[in-house]
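for the recovery benchmark. tokens below, seq after
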């Protein structure tokens, strides 16, 4: 046999083997790339779902924050109005009592003590939110005199 022909034959076979190897490598790499693409698509879908959940949570938290801000604003407004009413009430009381001679005199200690005791009893809330009162809707006389009694006693003292 001719050595050149033999060489050509082996060269063609080697070339065919090389081509088969390259085709196998390309197929393996294609499979790897498809797997990576699928993984990335799944990861992308999961990230989109997480992003959607995060956006919904953000909207929910933003709504809650706005609601809390509204509550705080309303509480501050109510506090401001209460302070204003208290100031106005104090002004009206001072204006009403200014012409009275007894308004500038100090309140006797016993009367002040009874008034403080009466105020603390009014602050104590009984069951059902009711203040402790007798069936005839009067406070016990020993602990809280009627307002006209206070004026009479303070004038006597």
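predicted aa per position
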């Amino acid at each position: 046999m001719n050595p050149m022909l033999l060489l050509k034959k082996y060269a063609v076979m080697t070339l065919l083997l090389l081509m088969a190897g390259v085709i196998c490598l390309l197929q393996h790499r294609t499979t790897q790339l498809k797997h990576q693409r699928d993984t990335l698509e799944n990861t992308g879908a999961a990230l989109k779902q997480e992003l959607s959940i995060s956006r919904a949570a953000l909207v929910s938290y933003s709504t809650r924050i706005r609601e809390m801000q509204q509550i705080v604003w309303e509480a501050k407004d109510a506090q401001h109005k209460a302070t204003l009413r208290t100031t106005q009430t104090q002004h009206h009381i001072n204006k009403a009592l200014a012409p009275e001679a007894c308004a500038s005199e100090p309140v006797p200690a016993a009367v002040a003590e009874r008034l403080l005791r009466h105020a603390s009893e009014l602050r104590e809330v009984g069951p059902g939110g009711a203040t402790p009162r007798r069936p005839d809707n009067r406070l016990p006389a020993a602990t809280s005199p009627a307002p006209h009694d206070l004026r009479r006693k303070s004038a006597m003292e």
